[in-house]
Amino acid sequence: MPKDAPQLGCAQAPILKERGQHEVFCGLTSIVWLHRKMQDAFFLVVGSRTCAHLLQSAAGVMIFAEPRFATAILEETDLAGMADVHEELDRNVSQLLSRRPDIKRLFLVGSCPSEVIKLDLATVAEKLSEKYFPNVNVINFSGSGIETTFTQGEDACLEAVIRSLPSSEKTQLAVLGALPDIVQDQMMRLLEQLGLKNVFVLPQVKFDDDVSIGKNTQFICVQPFLGASYEEMVRRGAKPISANFPFGAEGTTKWLWAISERFGISKAKFDTVVAAPKLRAEQAVAAVADGLRGKSVFFFPDSQLEIPLARFLSAECGMELTEVGSPFIHKSLVHADLEDLPAPTQISEGQDVDKQLDRVFDYNPDLTVCGLGLANPLESKGLSTKWAIELVFSPIHFYEQAADLASLFARPLKRAELLKVGP
């Protein structure tokens, strides 16, 4: 391409910075999926009764269940300094560990900044780790809605885990990000078929798993909201692999090829491994994309999945992008997907709800992807919506889920069409 050729894509495009009123779930919500992935872990949220109600409602925990998360509730006496909150927490942890000897990792999750709860959880975690060593590893991270948004809870958790991992000179591949078990199994099979060895996933299932990091560790993210974890891996000396995220046939192929190139896997072998699943995914997506092609979509900032999902909808489903908003944009993570977005697309970072509502009504898109708090009001105004939260909780990565991912966007449009009242 000549040097004076126009820049394609949105990698160098100006980003509209929004700093105003916002509406997102707090990072505590990520515990709902993290506690399922980490089988010997327990998440103890240090927070208010409101935080306890949020977790119970979000997870749908029945009274009979014994989940691997709970809330150490801060009472008014704790916040007012009338009780020794350190002693209270120490007693709660002692009772918990005596009751649940299977716990190997205990996460102390702050629901508010330390200035609010009057408790330095990082120091508490360090002291408790020393107290219960070597049986229990105590780690702290913040899930505060003041400091984190919806998916950043996983990022904060993973960053804390990475910080505590031992060093290693082993040549290996680390995949960062929690996936549903069936999707992770599919991913691991593909990587094994490509001939890759010494592959591990963070978060690891058990604390005793052989996981370490060093200068010979290559890593790639499977979720685009892991900015802090990415930076911590780099700080530990690991080498990042940049690629599109594995959404759809094209995204998955580019993600796998980036890994293959790094590890010197031949193009011939790569094509042999991916040919059949790639073709199935392309055919399955094409069957669904008929209902999406030519339709317009607007993304409110919510989960940080927005940019790679917009790439998938534009490149593989033929949708027209109006605005793609994301709470935070970590360019090192989403650079490849930004490059593949059509140049006129408006990219925005952060949130100012009132301004974005004005813009969405001006665009009048066929589909609006947004949080739960906006969906019903927008539907009442005649806009078809897709809940962003469903895209986090549904299996959407890699070849076998490509058509399911497209269907998540096609269903609201089909529903709207069926609900239309004829003349």
Descriptors:
423 residues, alpha/beta, Rossmann fold, 3 domains, six-stranded parallel sheet, four-stranded parallel sheet, disordered N terminus
Give a verbal description of the structure.
This protein is an alpha/beta fold. 45% of the residues lie in helices and 16% in strands. The strands form 3 sheets. Strands 1-12-11-10-13-14 form a 6-stranded parallel sheet, with helices on both faces. Helix 15 links the parallel strand 13 and strand 14 (385-387). The chain folds into 3 domains: 27-148, Nitrogenase molybdenum iron protein domain (Rossmann fold); 172-277, Nitrogenase molybdenum iron protein domain (Rossmann fold, 3-Layer(aba) Sandwich); 284-419, Rossmann fold (3-Layer(aba) Sandwich).
Overall outline:
globular
The largest sheet has its strands arranged as 1-12-11-10-13-14
- How many domains is the backbone divided into? 3
Proper CATH architecture of the largest domain: 3-Layer(aba) Sandwich
Helix content: 40-55%
Q: Hey, roughly how much beta strand do the residues contain?
A: 15-25%
Question: Radius of gyration, Cα only, in angstroms?
Answer: 22 Å
Question: Layout of helices and strands, plus pairs?
Answer:
Elements: E1 15-19, H1 31-37, E2 41-47, H2 49-59, E3 69-73, H3 76-79, H4 85-99, E4 105-110, H5 114-117, H6 121-132, E5 137-142, H7 152-164, E6 172-176, H8 181-193, E7 199-202, E8 217-221, H9 227-235, E9 239-240, H10 248-262, H11 267-289, E10 296-299, H12 306-317, E11 320-326, H13 331-339, E12 346-351, H14 353-363, E13 367-370, H15 372-380, E14 385-387, H16 388-393, H17 402-419
Parallel strand pairs: 1-12, 2-3, 2-4, 4-5, 6-7, 6-8, 8-9, 10-11, 10-13, 11-12, 13-14
Helix pairs in contact: 7-9, 10-11, 10-12, 11-17
